[in-house]
Every structure is written in structure tokens, then in C-alpha cells.
Amino acid sequence: MPKKKTATIPIQKILAKIRPVWIERVGDELAQGLEVRAGLEEQLERFFDLLVQSAASQDPAWMDALLLDWAKSSTETDLEEGLYQVTYIINRMMALTIQVASETLTKQQALHLLAAVIPIYTYGLGVVARYEMETRVTHISSEMEKVQEQMERVDRSKSAFISVAAHELKTPITLIDGYAAMMEDLIREGRGVPLDGLLTGMQTGIRRLRSIVDDMLDISMIDNHLLSLNFQPIQIEKLLDVLKGELEETVGRRRQTLEIHPFEGSKQWIYVDPARIMQAIRNILNNAVKYTPDGGRIVIDGRTLPGLIEVTISDTGIGISPEDQAVIFEKFGQLGRLDLHSSGKTKFKGGGPGLGLSISRGILEAHGGSIWVESEGYDEQKCPGSTFHVLIPIRTESPESRMAKLFEELERKE
Ligand code: ADP
Fold first, then answer.
1. What pLDDT is attached to residue 1?
2. Chain centroid to CA 367: how far?
3. Which of 164, 254, 291, 325 maximizes ligand 1 atoms within 8 Å of its Cβ, making it the mutation to test the pocket?
4. Ligand 1 center to residue 287 CA distance, Å?
5. Among candidates 327, 313, 296, which has minimal Cα distance to 387?
6. How many whole angstroms separate alpha carbon 98 and alpha carbon 86?
């Protein structure tokens, strides 16, 4: 008997046979964790239509548009994290096609189907993998660009630092030099004029030099995470009073007022490094004096927040533009303004080396706190003022048990 020739069923028909089971199986697997099942089914129907079209025409390029749509919809974040979602999905679809084919079709039909669709799946994997790779490469290149920009910024800030540091140091050195020359003349002339005034001038210059160098050392300690804190129990109120006392003379000279409003939490005993917290707030207060015109007002207030004490320092000064608000806590935030570098510690708008606020931030962050500023903007005429917010964590225990005992003592005395 002559062997009966099996008529080859067109691939479209074989695919039509597995279609409902395939859609359901793939849908079930991919829908896990997805909320919108309807949208997914629509996509699978679209995929299957194109699969049929590609198989019938033996041209897998029919799949391109859909595959790219899918690849694009998986976010860049997924790819950054190394989640190759779409390649995974296509791999699973291929495995499920093999499974469904072996369950629903005759051996011959299954072979016929797999011979037609596996090259399409492989092609699809290629398209998607290439896209995902390209996206990653783009991402990596943009990251590298960012790093390069950062390095260039550091480089610029380094050379700017050298010019500002030289300028800052030069002013007190010139001052000391001048007084020394005057003293020399007086001594040489042998006039018995008292030298006290000149010595005071020299001391002022030396103090200024020391404070600039100290700031530079502090910044380098903060940058290298070497700032060690000496925790002691204090009440914020006391620190603020000391600072007010320190500034009294300057504030008076500038005819400004400095008020401390009593606030909840200001009397609470907490552990901080008092010298460092004072330094952080002192820098803010010095700025408030410096950037507020004569006759202005500076107010210190605060409140408690869960786990934190917030201290606010508001002034009626020239204010800070939104762009500057973002950079003033960076070191040398004001480097662009060499014109301001007149080295006046409290003089109106007397610029400094631009280290004060970044030291304050470093100190507060080392305590687990933070600092930020609010200001309507910069306007020397209207003087909208600035408000600095300082958050200090409430620590009621010292890292050292001996200190904890002392703290208990103080609590009892309250
Ligand atoms: P500087 O040594 O320049 O004062 P800071 O780090 O202390 O450096 O401050 C950075 C910059 O922030 C200042 O140069 C000034 O432009 C701005 N700034 C700080 N505090 C105030 C304020 N209270 N009002 C207006 N501008 C301020």
C-alpha cells in the first residue's frame, strides 16, 4: 500500500489551535503581581497576531514595533538595576509555547510549529537584548559624563579655593604687616608713644588668621569624616544665651536687635557636643548680622518635633536667591563672588572664605541633624530676610555610662 501522504497543515491553523491555551497560560504566569490583567491580555493577543503573521511570511521583522514598545516600557531604572524584564518575558513565552504545543498538538504539528516560531522568538530576544544593552550603555555613558563634570567642578573649586584662600589670608597679613611697620618706626624714632593700640591691631589680624586656618582645618576634618564629637548634656537655651552674650557688642554697634524667644524644648537636657553646636549656630548668627543692614532684627525661636529640636534663626536681611539657597551649604559656595571677599567678620555684606555654612552643616550632620534655609529671595532694597532651620536630634543618653550618671544627676536637680 502506498504510504499516505500527510497534508501539511498551514502554520496559521496550527497556531490558531494553541492560541486560547497559550494566551491563558502566558497571561496567568505574567499576571502575577500585575493589577491590570485586561491590558496584558490585549498585548498578548497583539503579540500572537504578529507571531502568526511572522510565521506565515517567514519574516520576523513584523515583531519589531511591538518588541521595541515593550522594551521601552520597561523603565530605565529596571535596566540600571540589571532587570532584563522583556528578555525574561520572551524566554518564558518561548518555554510556554513549547509546553502548550506538546500538550495540545500532535507530535508532527508540534515540530512544525516549533520549527516556525523558535527562530522568531530568537530574533525577538536579539532585538530586545540589543535595545536593553543600548539603554544600559547610554545610562553608563551619562553616569560617566556626570562623574567627569563633578571632577571638573572639584578641579575648578580647588583653584578657586587657592585664590580665595590667598586673598583671605592676605588681608590680615597686610594688617599685621602694617602695624608691625608702624611699631618699628615709632620704636626707631624713640618717641615714647604707647604701643597698645598697634598691638591690639596686630592681635586682631592674628585672630582673623587663626580663625581662617581653623575653619580650613575643620572643613578638612568634616570632609575626611574625622570630626569627633565630645557629647555632653546641655540645654539649648544656655548655648543660645552664651552666643547672644558674645554678639552683644557687634549687634549694638550695628544697631540691630537680637531676640531669643523661649520655646518648647529649649530647656530640655540633651546630649550634644556643645562647642561644636555653638560653632554651627555661631556661623549662622554671624551671617545673620553680616547680611542684615544696620538697625535690623534677628530672632531665634524653635520647637520640638518627634525626636528632634528645631532651632530657627530669622533675620531681616538681604535674603538669599533660590539658586544660592542650593549652594551656600557647599564649601566655597560663594566663590564666584570674589568682589565680596573683603574679610569683614561682621561688616555689612563682608564676605568670608565661604566655609561657615558648610562647617555648620558638617557639624549638624555629624550629630545626625540637618540644616536648611528659607528665603523669599535676594533683594537688598526690600530685605525679605532669611530663616535658617537647624534640626538637632534629642539624645537623652550618652555613649558613655559615666556621662549618663551625670545626666541623671542634672535631671534630679531640675
Ligand atoms: P561666608 O564666609 O561667605 O559668609 P558662609 O558659608 O558663612 O560663607 O555663607 C555662604 C554665603 O551664604 C554667604 O556668602 C552669603 O552670600 C550667604 N548667606 C549666608 N547667610 C545669609 C543670610 N543670613 N542672609 C543673606 N545671605 C546669607
1. 47
2. 18
3. 291
4. 6
5. 313
6. 19
Supply the pTM of this predicted model. Answer: 0.62
**pLDDT recorded at residue 159:** 79
pLDDT at 155: 82
Q: Is the CB of 385 under 6 A from ligand 1?
A: no
Residue 350 in grid coordinates? 563682608
- Please tell me if the CB atom of residue 333 comes closer than 6 angstroms to any atom of ligand 1: yes
Query: What is the length of the chain?
Result: 414
Give, for 248, the enclosing helix (H) or strand (E).
helix 236-253
Distance 370 CA to ligand 1 centre (A): 17
Nearest C-alpha to atom 11 of ligand 1 is from which residue? 328
Q: What is the pLDDT of residue 69?
A: 86
Dist. CA 79–CA 363, nearest whole Å: 38
Ligand 1: residue whose CA is nearest its atom 19: 287
Q: What sign has the CA pseudo-torsion 88, 93, 96, 97?
A: negative
User: Which of 310, 327, 331 minimizes the C-alpha distance to 389?
Assistant: 310
What would you report as the CA-atom Rg of the chain, rounded to the nearest whole angstrom? Answer: 36
Q: Which residues of the chain have pLDDT under 50?
A: 1, 3, 335-336, 338-343
Residues 6+ apart with CB under 8 A from 406: 233
Secondary structure of residue 369 in the 3-state scheme: coil
Residue matched to cell numbers 549618663: 404
pLDDT of residue 41: 85
DSSP assignment of 107-145 equals HHHHHHHHHHHHHHHHHHHHHHHHHHHHHHHHHHHHHHH
pLDDT at residue 212, rounded to an integer: 87
CA dihedral 169, 172, 178, 182 (to 10 degrees): -140
**Which residue in the block uniquely carries the three cell numbers 581662617?**
212
Whether residue 291 contacts residue 349, with contact meaning beta carbons closer than 8 Å, is answered with yes
Backbone CA torsion sign across 359, 362, 367, 368: positive
